[in-house]
Automatic annotation (TrEMBL):
All copies of domain Amine oxidase, residue ranges: 37-456
Pfam families in UniProt: Amino_oxidase
Record GO terms (molecular function): polyamine oxidase activity
InterPro entries linked to this entry: Amino_oxidase, FAD/NAD-bd_sf, Flavin_amine_oxidase, Flavin_monoamine_oxidase
Cofactor requirements of the protein: FAD
Residues reported to bind FAD: V246
Keywords: Oxidoreductase
Provenance organism: Nepenthes gracilis (Slender pitcher plant)
Name used for this protein in its record: Amine oxidase domain-containing protein
Annotated binding of substrate, by residue: Y352
Length: 489
C-alpha cells in the first residue's frame, strides 16, 4: 500500500494475495496510525478479519506509552505498569490469562484516592521522621470526608469549578476538616496522590467530571514482566512500519491517503487514527479536509497531564518493606511518592513518580539533575540511602510522540468530549485512551477503543464493498483458559 509521490487520484491499493481476496479483485485495506495498544489491537483484529493492514508508527519501537525497558537486565515499565481492575471484566484479562502473565497486587480495594490497607505505606516528613500510622489513617479518613463534601458542593454549583476551589469551599463551610502542622502535610500527600492519578494539578481538574471514569473491580496489579509481552503477542505477523511519522491525512468518499514526514504516501479504504491527544493538540498533523469543528473542540477541551517515572536501581534494599514510601510537605507540589518495586520484581528498585507541574518542571532538567533531584527526595527520608548504581527516566510531556502522559477532564469542559473524539468521520476512525469515555487514561481503555474502531471500520468498509458476511468479525478476542495469576508478598 506504499507509494512514493503517488498522484492523488489513485486511492485503491493494488496488492491482493489472500484466499478470500481472489474472489474480490481488490481486498479491503486499512491504515492504522500509531502502534500503541489501541493501534496494535485494531490492526490485529482487522488483520485476523482478512483485511490488508499497514501500521504507521513514528517511533523506532511499538508500544507507545507502554514501554518496557530491559537496561537493568530485568523488565521495568517506563509508561503503564499496572492493570487497573484485576478482574475478568477487564478487556485485557483474556490476553493476560492466555499468556500466563503474573501480576503483583499493590491495592486491594477499588479506592483510588485512599487505600484502606495503610500497612502498605511508610510516610515521612522532610526531616526524615516517620509519620505515626494512626495519623496517616486519621487523615485518610478526613480526605474521604472532604471528597464527599465536595460532592455536595458539586450538586449546588451550576458552573464547574476545580477540585482545588471545591476544597477551599469545603474548608470554609466545615473548618473542622481543616488540619494544621503535620496533619496538614499528610493531607497534602493524599492530594498529591489524587493529582498523580490524573497527572494534573488540583487547580485544573474538573469537580463535575473527575469521577466519571469507570473503575473496574479487583484492585490494581503490577505487570511483573512488564506490558511488553502483550504488545509483542498482539503485534506478531503485522505489517508495522517503524520510523514513519504521519504528517497528513487526506480523506475521500472511498478512501484515505496518508503521507509521512519522509514523503512516503500510503492509500487504503479507511484509516484508524490512534495518535495521542497531546500530538493531536499540537496540530502537527494536517487533516484534509479539516476536521469538523466539534471534533477540533473535543481535542482542545480534553486535558492531557504529565506523569513521569525516575527509576532508581540500588545495590541493596535499605528501605522499609512497604509498597510505597512517601514524603509529606506543606504543599502537594512538595510531596513525593516512591513505589517499592522490590516487592513485585525482587530487585532493589524504587520508582519516583512526579506528576502535574512538578513533572513538567523536572522535565526541564538534564537527566543527571533529574535523577539527583529524585535521589535527594529519598535522602530526605532515608539519610543513609546507598548511592544509585543506575537510573532510567521518562519524558512523556516533551516526547514529540506523546506530548503528555494521559488525558483528564479539565475544569468547565464536558466528559462527552471523549465520545466526540471517538466518533468516526467518513472513513476515518479514532481510537486511543482519550477516546474512551469509560476508561480514559488506561491501557484497557486504549485496547477496547482499538477493538471498537476496528469493528466499526470493518462494517463500513465491507458495506462499501457490498459484502457483509465474507470476513470474520474483528473482535480479536480469544477465550480465556487460565485464571489471572496475582500474588502478594
Ligand atoms: C508514566 C505513565 C504511567 C501510566 N501508568 C498506567 C498504568 O499503570 N495503567 C494503565 O492502565 N495506564 C497507564 N498509563 C496510561 C497508558 O499508558 C495509556 O493510556 C495507553 O498506553 C495509551 O495507549 P494508546 O494506544 O491510546 O496511545 P499510545 O500508546 O501513545 O500510542 C500512540 C502511538 O502513536 C504514535 N504516534 C504519535 N505521533 C505519530 C505520528 N505523527 N505518526 C505515526 N505515529 C505516531 C506514538 O509513537 C505511539 O506509539 C500510564 C501512562 C504513562 C505515561
Amino acid at each position: 500500500m506504499e507509494y512514493k509521490n503517488r498522484s492523488n487520484r489513485q486511492l485503491r491499493p493494488d496488492v491482493c494475495n489472500s484466499k478470500i481476496e481472489r474472489r474480490h479483485p481488490i481486498s479491503p485495506s486499512v491504515i492504522v496510525i500509531g502502534a500503541g495498544f489501541a493501534g496494535i489491537a485494531a490492526a490485529r483484529a482487522l488483520h485476523d478479519a482478512s483485511f490488508q493492514v499497514i501500521v504507521l508508527e513514528s517511533r523506532d519501537r511499538t508500544g507507545g506509552r507502554v514501554c518496557t525497558d530491559y537496561t537493568f537486565g530485568f523488565p521495568v515499565d517506563m509508561g503503564a505498569s499496572w492493570l487497573h481492575g484485576v478482574c475478568n471484566e477487564n478487556p485485557l484479562a483474556p490476553l493476560i490469562e492466555r499468556l500466563g502473565l503474573p501480576l503483583y497486587r499493590t491495592c486491594n480495594d477499588n479506592s483510588v484516592m485512599y487505600d484502606h490497607d495503610l500497612e502498605r505505606y511508610a510516610l515521612f516528613d522532610t526531616d526524615g521522621n516517620r509519620v505515626p500510622q494512626e495519623l496517616v489513617v486519621k487523615i485518610g479518613e478526613v480526605f474521604e470526608k472532604i471528597l464527599k463534601a465536595t460532592n455536595e458542593v458539586r450538586q449546588e454549583c451550576n458552573e464547574d469549578i476545580s477540585i482545588q476551589q471545591a476544597f477551599s469551599i469545603v474548608f470554609e463551610r466545615r473548618p473542622e476538616l481543616k488540619s494544621e502542622g503535620l496533619a496538614h502535610k499528610v493531607l497534602q500527600w493524599y492530594l498529591c496522590g489524587m493529582e498523580g492519578w490524573f497527572a494534573a494539578d488540583a487547580e485544573t481538574i474538573s469537580l463535575k467530571c473527575w469521577d466519571k471514569e469507570v473503575l473496574l473491580p479487583g484492585g490494581n496489579g503490577i505487570m511483573v514482566l512488564g506490558y511488553r509481552p502483550m504488545i509483542n503477542t498482539l503485534a506478531k505477523g503485522l505489517d508495522i512500519r517503524l520510523n514513519h511519522r504521519v504528517t497528513e491525512i487526506f480523506r475521500h468518499h472511498n478512501g484515505v491517503r496518508v503521507t509521512t514526514e519522509s514523503g512516503s504516501t500510503f492509500v487504503a479504504d479507511a484509516a484508524i487514527v490512534t495518535i495521542p491527544l497531546g500530538v493531536l493538540k499540537s496540530n502537527t498533523i494536517k487533516f484534509e479536509p479539516r476536521l469538523p469543528e466539534w471534533k477540533e473542540a473535543a481535542i482542545s477541551d480534553l486535558g492531557v497531564g504529565v506523569e513521569n517515572k525516575i527509576v532508581m536501581h540500588f545495590d541493596k534494599v535499605f528501605w522499609p518493606n512497604v509498597e510505597f514510601l512517601g514524603v509529606v510537605a506543606d504543599t502537594s507540589y512538595g510531596c513525593s511518592s516512591f513505589l517499592n518495586l522490590h516487592k513485585a520484581i525482587n530487585h532493589p528498585v524504587l520508582v519516583y513518580m512526579p506528576a502535574g507541574k512538578l513533572a513538567q518542571d523536572i522535565e526541564k532538567m538534564s537527566d543527571e539533575a533529574a535523577a539527583n533531584f529524585a535521589f535527594m527526595q529519598l535522602q530526605k527520608i532515608l539519610p543513609g540511602a546507598s548511592p544509585l548504581i543506575q537510573y532510567l527516566l521518562s519524558r512523556w510531556g516533551s516526547d514529540p510522540n506523546s506530548l503528555g502522559s494521559y488525558s483528564y477532564d479539565k475544569v468547565g469542559k464536558s466528559h462527552d468530549s471523549y465520545e466526540k473524539l471517538r466518533i468516526p468521520i467518513d472513513n476515518l476512525f479514532f481510537a486511543g485512551e482519550a477516546t474512551s469515555a469509560l476508561y480514559p487514561g488506561f491501557v484497557h481503555g486504549a485496547y477496547s477503543t482499538g477493538l471498537q474502531a476496528a469493528e466499526n471500520c470493518r462494517i463500513r468498509v465491507l458495506e462499501s464493498y457490498g459484502e457483509h458476511d465474507v470476513f470474520e468479525p474483528a473482535t480479536g478476542e480469544n477465550t480465556a483458559s487460565v485464571p489471572l495469576l496475582i500474588s502478594k508478598m
